[in-house]
Amino acid sequence: MKVAVFSCKAYDKEHLEKFNNGKHEFSYLTPHLTKLTALLASEHDAVCCFVNDQLTSDCIEILASVGIKYIVLRCAGYNNVDLDACEKQQIKVVRVPEYSPYAVAEHAVALIMDLNRNIHRAFSRVRDNYYLLDGLLGFDMHGKTIGVIGTGKIGICLIKIMQGFGCHVIAHDVHPNDKVKALGVEYKTLNELYTQSDVISLHCPLNADTHHLINDTSIGKMKKGVMIINTSRGGLVDTIAVIKGLKSGQVGYLGLDVYEEETDLFFEDFSNTVLQDDVFARLLTFSNVVITGHQAFFTREALDSISKVTLNNLTALESGDLEKACLIPLS
Ligand code: NAD
User: Fold this and answer.
1) Quick one: pLDDT at residue 321?
2) What whole-number distance in Å separates Cα of residue 96 and Cα of residue 299?
3) How far is the C-alpha of 50 from the C-alpha of 27, rounded, in Å?
4) Domain D-isomer specific 2-hydroxyacid dehydrogenase catalytic, which positions (predicted)?
5) Which atom number of ligand 1 is nearest to the Cα of residue 298?
6) Domains of the chain and CATH, by start
7) What's the pLDDT tens digit per position in 259-314?
8) Nearest 10 degrees: CA dihedral of 275, 279, 280, 285?
9) Atom of ligand 1 minimally distant from the CA of 297
10) What residues line ligand 1, using a CB cutoff of 6 Å?
């Protein structure tokens, strides 16, 4: 299979080559896939894409016109793909449904603990030869209530880790899971979860129902000083609302690995330019906000797994053995 790999970084190339053994032919392209770059996919059978590629209907129409038959996502989420347009153009879409849920759950825990114990502030103080502890007071995780929204693969990993801390974990999911109930976790309505949780961590997909799930109204229902963690998708959080919550103290801590306007920001080097996004700039002014640039998935094990599943998907599509491909159902 001839595959145009968009948004390609050195580590993507390294991991795809590691397991390919010359089977598929990759063109490694650094630009994001958008309607403006879609023609670069000419003379390939498939495009291989990541979270910030923009597979809009315009883009998919161009892909179809140059003969692309497959969209091969090297990620789990597919909110950036217009599936109706794929169906119309008869383009099959596959993804990596699971690579390392541990990687993302463990990153969520890293954000929680960094915010709780002020690790980011403490480290800069120590580097400044400044050792006063004022402002660094944390809290015991033991006994705190953690509200997990979305109890799929990543949510369950987080639940188990937080139970190891001695936390009381409650959850909300549109499809409650018996495995989660067996862990002693009680499913709650969103309102109950908002009012009872000390820490709220988001692990549901971004879709029409979950867009801006965290907004003025939901924040208003939360405990004063709540910690909100988002390692899922940026659009789950209304950034303006959360800034308002941070200014009033209603939100006590915010940990983000994703941001609703991250597409033109994350995964690039802008260190020699002026940050143009004033909302993002405001977020960066709060000492109780920690942001990472969509790196929760970024472990050696996850990259190996992404590469293996992507290669399996390509081989299954090429051989027509669709049962072995992780197809996204088109309606
Ligand atoms: P999953 O499909 O295993 O679980 C998602 C869960 O969310 C399911 O149990 C589903 O029923 C639930 N859900 C769906 N709609 C909901 C709603 N309206 N309210 C509450 N729950 C709802 O997915 P996963 O592998 O656990 O991944 C979760 C999310 O993490 C993905 O959607 C993806 O966006 C994100 N993710 C981020 C990174 C990163 O690097 N930051 C990496 C991988 C995945």
Assistant:
1) 95
2) 15
3) 15
4) 4-321
5) 40
6) 2-99+300-324 (3.40.50.720), 101-291 (3.40.50.720)
7) 999 988 999 999 999 999 999 999 999 999 999 999 999 999 999 999 999 999 99
8) 100
9) 40
10) 76-77, 98, 101, 104, 149-155, 172-175, 203-205, 209-210, 231-233, 257-258, 294, 296-297
